[in-house]
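User: I'm writing a tutorial on reading structure tokens. Could you give me a worked example: one chain, its sequence, then its tokens, then a sentence or two explaining what the tokens reveal?
Assistant: Sure. Here is the example chain.
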Amino acid sequence: MFGHTNEPFSLQRDVKAVIIPAGEELLLREGTSGFITQSLGGSFTIYVEGNLFRIAGADADALGKEPVPPPAVPDNASDADIEAVIWEQLKTCYDPEIPVNIVDLGLIYRCDVTPLGNGERSVSVDMTLTAPGCGMGDILV
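And here are its predicted structure tokens:
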């Protein structure tokens, strides 16, 4: 899952990015250079010309990285198995400014898995943000 780094990069293609902490999306152009400051949970925080940006894991190739594969659910998974996978996936969602995930930050209050029949389930998660008006809220959720 990578980690906390200061690895130099040069974008290999144009890529959508979100400026931190404003939460506004923009396009960074191929050839833009900077440093990867955090690569946790499959997404990347990069530093370019005095600003921090979040790059989605699906766009890892723009940074010359491989995307992290989605979580695997075991065949014939029980509700407890599904809940465990969900909690592990929630732990891959990191605050883009600090290297701590939303579970360890205490932002997740509840995660319930409800069987619907035919092997389908409904999942309900209650969470909060690190600060009211956090510009990254829509990105994290």
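What the tokens reveal: The chain has two domains: 3-63, 79-140. The two ends are 20 Å apart (CA to CA).
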